[in-house]
Amino acid sequence: MRYSAMASLSLLAFLAACAPPQQGGAPSATTGQGGSARQMTREPTSGTIARLPADAAGFMRSGQVKDYEAQRPGFGQGVEYTTPGREAVATVDIYDRGMASIPNQEQLVRSELDEAVRELSSLQHSRTGRSLDEQQRTTIPIEGADPLQCAVLSGRYGRVPVSLDICVGMAAGRFIKIQVTMPDRTPAMADARAFAHSVATAAQRR
Question: Of these four, 26, 36, 48, 54, which has the most CB atoms within 10 Å of its CB?
Fold first, then answer.
């Protein structure tokens, strides 16, 4: 039990380091109709964050909203979820890369996912004790929105085999990125796809 708890805390530290949107590969900001149009066409990021559920697929929302936007404009806000015992962890980020509007959404969503996978896969085991490799790409249908584009990675964090699911989509005119990390066990400790579907659906502006 002690080993499991320590492994979970390590996973949380790993996840916290990887959760915010990465700066490399970001599309350049567009002017659109100017700042006023941005306010007219999109709700504040906090409005989307507020719709995220208190619990979803066995995960409970925990902690305060992380305001990345304050220090890194375009990086938005995020929240963390955990399962009981904090053995599986998830983050949900809402951000726009500083773009007043996001054209070619399917292409840019794919680019965001590609960048996230590159960042996660580039971890060098010899230096960090972490290694992750992409296993497959999937999609998750979302009612009233384009499907989430997802990647499944697996690897190790120290001695602990880990599984990581990362999905990117759109919610209320911004990117939504969902990352779920847990020890790689059979059966799985949590349903990452069900969690991603639940929070992405809740984030949509109706």
Answer: 48
